[in-house]
Amino acid sequence: MIYCQNCLQPDTRPNSAFTEEGLCPACHYFGFLQKVDWQERYEILQDLLSQQQRKPGSYHDCIIGVSGGKDSTRQALFLRDKLKINPLLVCLSYPPEQVTERGVENISNLINLGFDLVMSAPAPQTWKTLKKAGFERFINSFRSTEMALFASVPQIALKYGIKLIMWGENPGLQLGDLKTLGSTGYDGNNLRYLNTLSSGLDWMLDCSFSRSELLPYVYPDTSEFDKHGLQIVYLGWFLGDWSLVNNATYSCGNGIEIRSDGVSKTGDLYGVTALDEDFTPINQLIKYYKYGFGRVTDYVNEEIRLGRISRVKGIELVEKYDDAHDSQYISDYCDYLGITVFDFWKQVKSAVNLEFFEISDDQGIQRKFKVGVGL
Question: Which of 190, 233, 291, 310 could make a disulfide contact with 12, Cβ separation 3.0–4.6 Å?
Fold first, then answer.
């Protein structure tokens, strides 16, 4: 394990590669951003939008996938109020046992702000069965749900004949998942190669579902994109102030409700992510045990790049909170999947990367690496 020379990103992120100078892709890109002409990018965005023609009889200029959280709320308001275009919002609905009241309120807030919204709701029992199978097979119950999340937006775009999808951040440039990079910095049509979408449908078919039952999980292939002229554009590429904190600040001023449970339970330093459900912090914990970094690492990396905290302070926060978790959330998660808490930890420990961690005699999990230094 090697750490970025600037932030606290280890080289264990899937599909990532450091520069010869020892910078992670996100820090390398951030350095490039300091020379960007943001007015020029804004003009590129205006030109790009002017070239998009609505389908005859259509009312909407583009589609935005939304959860009601900080990024989607900011995108929707920016496009409508700044650029004067009319987006259709698409939300993948979690089943009642998973969605939080906070999440419902935030979606309602977007509707109350005057947006049209289409809800995609996969069959709850199929959803639950696939989540359990994903946990048993990959120790990742989000394999299936993230596929449905990403697939829902282009599926609705194709059905409504809308040719433009506006996405938030570019995961290749801003996170380092390099397989998603497109022909330009704002081209998102390679989003299909995101690490979270890599498992395909075969394992789901093995769960005794027919292909027709799995339609909500099928990301449209490139031929469908080409046939309909569908284009995904990363809006974050055009915004010089696009960041976790800035988006949250902007959206909080426009009515979103944030978390109040605290960083020690979720690893969320500011309480502004995964607002619509409480299982994501558990997935972040498992990610930490697999790759040696969790949600707090992602937070502090951005804050270090922006100069709001030092690397030393970042190390302190990562050491303290990167393995944050809450026993009640884990219990609720296990109840939903129909497993015991004992079996949960047994599965998780089977996935622990023993190069980075050791499991002690009392079954505690301790890291072998030093944050900011590595092994």
Answer: 291
